[in-house]
Amino acid sequence: MEKLSASVNQTLRIGKQIARNLAGGEIILLSGSLGAGKTVLAKGIAQGLGINKNNVISPTFVLLRVHQGRHLLQHFDLYRLRSIEDIFSLGYEEYFYAQAVTIIEWPERLKFLLPKEFLKIKLLTKAKNKRLLKFSARGMRHKALLEKIHEDTRH
What we know:
This protein is an alpha/beta fold. It contains five helices and seven strands, in the order E-H-E-H-E-E-H-H-E-E-E-H. It has helices at 8-20, 38-48, 84-90, 92-96, 140-153; strands spanning 2-5, 27-31, 64-68, 72-77, 101-105, 118-125, 131-138. The chain has a seven-stranded mixed β-sheet with strand order 1-7-6-2-5-4-3. Helix 1 crosses helix 2 (38-48). The two termini are 15 Å apart.
């Protein structure tokens, strides 16, 4: 599935549409270059979960921020991950396999620790404000989620 966003507001709206279909326990991987809109999409998902989008920022000195909304939101930003040992020290398994919604920016930095099942959204910059969002899923639960999001965003 692909979605084209022509603005920050549209990316936020797509995030809110994604959030409507979340039940807790999902892992959402956001990949793309710097400035591709990963954090904007995370803000939209947070907003859809009832969390103030302004509280969702790209962490500068921490790898993880946790927000309480309709579901607990765990927001990882691994851009500044220096070594895989840093993620071990967080006790990542407890976070990845909790009943919270988990968003992971820069998931490729997890290497072999990448979860086996997830919804992945790759954001590609097409123009100054245009982004192409490419969705894929692994695992039955996340494939069903992707189908629900596809159905929800067609209308």
